[in-house]
Amino acid sequence: MGIININSLKVTPAKDKTVDLCSVQFKSENDIRPKGVQRAIKRLKDVGLLFKVNFLVLICNTLGQSKSMGTCDVSMLSRVLEDLDLSDIDWCSYVLECLKNTKHAWNSISDTSYYVGPIVLLMLIYLEHVSCDAVTIDRGRPVICFWDVETICLHEEYEIRNGGIGSGELQDPYIPRDDNAENVNSEYLSTIESTLNKLVEDNHMLASKLVEAIERNPLVCHFNE
């Protein structure tokens, strides 16, 4: 995970180039939607600047925020330079900022106000904390690695059939297992066991030598003490 906040990057002259690179693949910016960007990525033959531009748009609009009616927000492209390494971006901070901004902008009582924030994050938080008898998933981190579309749909269908979304029971907080500690303990116990076995073996050898010495020198009394 990187340390660069994408919103802290300056708007650069590269804007025209990157926005044009993205827009030229579609009839208009209103036609730029996640599915279309995904198809555009699949058509690419290399991983050059166009791949980076499309990938950034897809990630920012699926994990972050989009525009109303499902169109993609391409404003972040104005901050993208050709040599920017996407792995240097602090994606966690970006998603949390999107969560905060879209929550403030969303009018939950309006029929014409649609939530355009990081729904994937909210969905995974829900799935992680609400149990479902129809789906058994190993818990771990990152959560997104333990769920796929099929199991999410099974979870949703089961809840709808059994009282609706939110009707499941809350699970206890996930406590990660400290595998390193277990490995250290296992190695430590193995070392103790090995040392103990060696001591037992040496003790048997010493006892055998003492018996042999007594048999050879029965008049030497201190061997019997």
Structure description:
By secondary structure, the protein is an all-alpha fold. It has three domains: 1-107, no CATH class; 118-176, no CATH class; 179-223. The protein is built from seven helices and no strands. The chain has helices at residues 14-23, 34-43, 49-64, 91-105, 119-129, 149-161, 179-216. Helix 1 (14-23) packs across helix 3 and helix 2 runs antiparallel to helix 3. The protein is elongated.
Beta-strand percentage range: under 5%
Q: What is the number of domains?
A: 3
Alpha-beta content class: mainly alpha
Share of residues in helices: 40-55%
Order of helices and strands: HHHHHHH
Sheet with the most strands?
Answer: none
Shape: elongated
Mean pLDDT: 83
Distance between the termini: 69 Å
Write down how many β-strands occur, each being a DSSP E stretch of 2 or more residues. Answer: 0
The value of Rg in angstroms is 31 Å
Unreliable stretches, pLDDT < 50, 5 or more residues? none
Count of DSSP helices?
7
